[in-house]
Amino acid sequence: MVITVKKEDNLADDFLAIDAVLFLIACFLSYWALRTRTIRRMHRVEKIADTIFLFALLVMTVICGFITFALTAS
Length: 74
Known about the structure:
By secondary structure, this protein is mainly α. The chain is about 85% helix and about 0% strand. The chain has helices at about 1-5, 10-35, 40-70. Helix 2 (about 10-35) packs antiparallel against helix 3 (about 40-70). It starts with a helix and ends with a helix.
């Protein structure tokens, strides 16, 4: 997005792609937790999915801030 608007080469687009993969992993883990029959495993997988999801939200917020800064700078 920033590359096409400001013709700047930065890593924001690559980080957004990685962030999308993190969200996908969190979704798969959540689905796995729903399908797991063992209660103990279900809780463990839920914790991992929640942690990855919250980390992905944090990364997305940082990337959006970086993109906003890059668009307003110069």
